Backbone:
């Protein structure tokens, strides 16, 4: 006999070497014979079980009912791969597979998958009425009373299913986690493609999910850390997001590989895989925030695709991601149209050409490129020139700065100027106006030349005969106008208070003028509410 504890026979029929058709006399004889070469107490216990009609049922249901003694003998000694050659089905096949898998280690993922497929399929073929009929046929030959209680048999079969589940988990313990996950993944897809899903496979998946709990908890915690890091970077360093998104991708791919069976099983049973849904909606919220809070459309789409590919088996998640994808596609199309409208390039000069261009990535002049998001100040204007009253042309100026350096483009082509300035508005103007309103609304102040701007008031220079002083007025008390290439803010009539700011000299004065005029148009006395 084998010295491996896992290989020792545990079924009374195997211990005594008898069949389900042997009578009481043959069982007692076999027990006496085996006692000479094996544990006598174990043999006596096996005899007691097989000769007691009530206790015998459990042994019968864990053996090979409905099979000939020869096939049963072959089943008891066969390996997992050999069992497919025997005429076994249902309960007999399930018991044979479990017995053969004791101490067995699958050598490949396919081998493990096929074992699980055979066992779960056999378990689903078990029918209590058929089993009782097969048991009673053998009992009639062996001279034992018939099984008459369907409930007792059904309870014993439930115990067998638990034993099979334990055997599967023991088999999983003998292989690396990655092979276990791959075998389950491929099995679930295989049975789904064949439009069958054994009920016992659901039970195995439940055990598999419990075994994965510690790993799943770690993965969710890891995903939450990555999501929070991505949110921080989106606000300060969006260029640093790609490695975080790549890390999220790897995490979600691993999650999908491990939980795919759980997701499929839950969906087929009309249940929810709560851990997967929690993770999916956590990452989905990042996709939403990347666009809503930071206008990072491409990154938002990347994250949304990750969620969709990893949780496609979950109806609630799939539905939301489909809605997100449609919304993001619409935004992408809109952004593409805006990019096309924004993009412009022209060569300035007659002989020595200089490139002036703008697109979604930035503005360029004389080979110096500035990102749109980095631009802090913009100014532009034109000066008409003449000699002795005869017009000699117009000098155009467009300048922008990123807080470190200023780039100034000067030329004499009016068509280029007229085409470029509206694109500057589109590319940076609305952002800078919003930043102005946010700063003023938070209690800050802005300076344009000598003029100090606050949310509800403006500080102007009031001129006297030999001096001047700074005076503060409410926005409802001042007027604005344009003259000689400048924006002018004037105090109440008779105050002699005003500030004049040249469009070519003062950064962002064009944008500020638009903000003030919008506030006046809407009757607002707080600039932060100009567009309310």
Residues:
């Amino acid at each position: 006999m084998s010295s491996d504890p896992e290989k020792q026979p545990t079924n009374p029929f195997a211990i005594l070497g008898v069949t389900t058709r042997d009578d009481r006399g043959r069982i007692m004889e076999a027990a006496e014979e085996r006692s000479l070469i094996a544990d006598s107490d174990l043999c006596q216990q096996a005899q007691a079980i097989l000769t007691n009609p009530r206790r015998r049922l459990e042994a019968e249901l864990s053996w090979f009912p409905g099979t000939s003694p020869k096939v049963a003998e072959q089943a008891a000694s066969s390996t997992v791969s050999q069992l497919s050659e025997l005429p076994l089905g249902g309960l007999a096949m399930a018991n044979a597979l479990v017995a053969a898998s004791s101490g067995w280690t699958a050598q490949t993922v396919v081998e493990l998958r096929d074992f699980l497929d055979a066992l779960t399929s056999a378990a689903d073929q078990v029918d209590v009425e058929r089993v009782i009929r097969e048991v009673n046929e053998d009992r009639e030959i062996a001279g034992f009373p018939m099984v008459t209680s369907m409930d007792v048999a059904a309870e014993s079969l439930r115990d067998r299913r638990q034993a099979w589940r334990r055997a599967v988990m023991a088999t999983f313990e003998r292989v690396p986690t990655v092979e276990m996950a791959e075998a389950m993944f491929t099995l679930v897809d295989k049975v789904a493609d064949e439009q069958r899903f054994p009920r016992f496979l659901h039970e195995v998946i439940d055990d598999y999910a419990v075994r994965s709990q510690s790993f799943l908890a770690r993965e969710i915690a890891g995903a939450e850390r990555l999501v929070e890091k991505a949110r921080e970077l989106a606000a300060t360093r969006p260029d640093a997001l790609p490695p975080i998104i790549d890390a999220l991708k790897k995490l979600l791919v691993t999650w999908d590989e491990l939980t795919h069976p759980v997701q499929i099983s839950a969906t087929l049973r009309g249940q929810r895989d709560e851990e997967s849904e929690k993770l999916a909606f956590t990452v989905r919220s990042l996709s939403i925030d990347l666009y809503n809070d930071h206008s990072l459309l491409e990154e938002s789409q990347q994250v949304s695709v990750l969620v969709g590919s990893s949780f496609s088996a979950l109806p609630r998640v799939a539905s939301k991601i489909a809605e997100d994808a449609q919304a993001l596609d619409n935004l992408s199309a809109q952004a593409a149209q805006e990019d096309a409208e924004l993009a412009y390039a022209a060569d300035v000069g007659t002989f020595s050409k200089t490139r002036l261009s703008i697109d979604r990535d930035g503005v360029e002049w004389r080979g110096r490129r500035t990102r749109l998001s980095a631009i802090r100040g913009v100014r532009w204007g034109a000066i008409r020139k003449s000699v002795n009253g005869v017009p000699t042309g117009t000098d155009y100026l467009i300048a922008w700065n990123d807080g470190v350096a200023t780039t100034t483009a000067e030329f004499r082509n009016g068509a280029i100027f007229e085409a470029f300035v509206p694109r500057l508005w589109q590319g940076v103007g609305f952002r800078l106006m919003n930043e102005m309103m946010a700063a003023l609304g938070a209690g800050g102040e802005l300076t344009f030349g000598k003029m100090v701007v606050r949310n509800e008031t403006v500080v102007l220079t009031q001129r006297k005969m030999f001096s001047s002083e700074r005076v503060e007025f409410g926005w409802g008390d001042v007027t604005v106008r344009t003259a000689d290439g400048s924006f002018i803010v004037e105090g109440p009539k008779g105050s002699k208070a005003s500030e004049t700011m040249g469009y070519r000299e003062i950064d962002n004065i064009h944008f500020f003028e638009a903000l003030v005029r919008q506030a006046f148009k809407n009757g607002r006395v707080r600039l932060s509410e100009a567009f309310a």
Observations:
- Confidence is low (pLDDT under 50) at residues 1-6.
- Residues 241-268 form the longest helix (28 residues).
